[in-house]
Amino acid sequence: MKAVLPVRDGVLPLGAAETVAEAGGAAVLIGSGVARAGWAGAHTVWCAEVGAYAPGRWAAALAEPLADTDVILLPASPDGRDLAPRLAAALERPLLAGAVRVTSDGADLVRWAGRVGVPATAAGLFVATLLPGVRGVDPSAPQPDPAVHELALQLPDVPDCEVLEVLPPDPGTADLAEAPRILAAGAGLLRGVEDPTAGVALLRKVATALGASVGATRVVTDAGWIGYERQIGTTGVLVDPELYVALGISGAAQHMGGLGRPRHVVSVNTDPSCPMTAQAELGIVADAPAVLAELATRLGITP
Questions:
Q1: Total Cβ atoms within 10 A of residue 127
Q2: Is 2-150 in CATH node 3.90.640.10?
Q3: Distance, CA of 283 to CA of 263 (rounded, Å)
Q4: Distance between CA atoms of residues 207 and 23, nearest Å
């Protein structure tokens, strides 16, 4: 089994370390700036410096050197999801997309926004994508000194997409799993207020001003105040942001299970002993709607 990691300008994709760990430590890095991208915990690395992103040409070039690899695993990042089906087609193999666990004879897949688990088997060789944030890795674990090999590839002239421009992600619509900052709404922010819809609208404005994405607990999404694609937890999206602001979230186990390892956690809750505040780097013991309104005022945002 080998991991294949598409690299852009020396930046590894989301979920790179998890994908390498699931693949057993062998990784192929392909793209631009691969030598400075880091090895994502791999013990054996093949580096293919091939320039700007070209998934069709990359897939065609990788088909021969990967032909004898039984399982090829890519992260289910945007580039990984784009490259994986092309690679599977070039190798004439099935694609098992959206896996949470991969073995030599198949994978455990999730469907319906993570609410349904589907075991899938493959009769032979296959390509799979691993969902970021599910497997997890220990960031404090010692990193091996990998054996690094150069992989010389000639990109064939095949039909491919053309990259016109790379735009920064819009926090309001970006995949929540990739959001570096998240403002999350719990029952304490919206339940019992006069107009929950207005509360959500204000939350979105504040999040936009802070360059953050909006998340929610299951109570909030079940009530229909925020869409299910924004639900964080073991039955929703698994996240791993730099900053997580929990507004009126007590910290149920199902929600905490989807948090990963946020670098900074701020909890706004009237209960100083709730699990979320206990985990937080900064705990604000106050009414969440009032704190959100005050934050909006300080940012110059009108309801």
A1: 27
A2: no
A3: 15
A4: 36
**What is the domain partition of the chain in residue ranges?**
2-150, 176-298
Alpha carbon distance 136, 34 (integer Å)? 23
- pLDDT bucket at 113, cuts 50 / 70 / 90: low
216-234 average pLDDT score: 92
Same fold, 2-150 and 176-298: yes
Q: Which residues contact 176 (CB under 8 A, 6 or more apart)?
A: 182, 213, 215, 229, 230, 232, 237, 239
For residue 35, the 8-state DSSP code is: G
The predicted structure's pLDDT at residue 133: 74
DSSP output for 130-170:
E-TTTS---TTSPPP--EEEE----------------PPP-
Q: For residue 140, what pLDDT is reported?
A: 67
Size of the chain, expressed as the number of residues it contains: 303
* Contact between 27 and 3 (Cβ < 8 Å): yes
DSSP 8-state assignment for residue 126: E
pLDDT tens figures, 178-204: 889 999 999 999 988 889 999 999 999
Q: Is the pLDDT confidence value at 139 over 70?
A: no
Distance CA 196, CA 226 (A): 10
| The dihedral sign for the CA sequence 37, 41, 46, 52 | negative
> What is the separation of C-alpha 132 from the centre of its chain, rounded to a whole number of angstroms?
4
Return mean pLDDT, the chain: 91
- For the chain, where are the alpha helices, taking DSSP H only? 16-22, 55-62, 78-91, 187-190, 196-209, 218-222, 253-256, 275-279, 288-298
Q: What residue type is assigned to position 240 of the chain?
A: D
Homologous superfamily (CATH) for 176-298 = TPP-binding domain (3.40.50.1220)
The predicted pLDDT at position 54 comes to 94
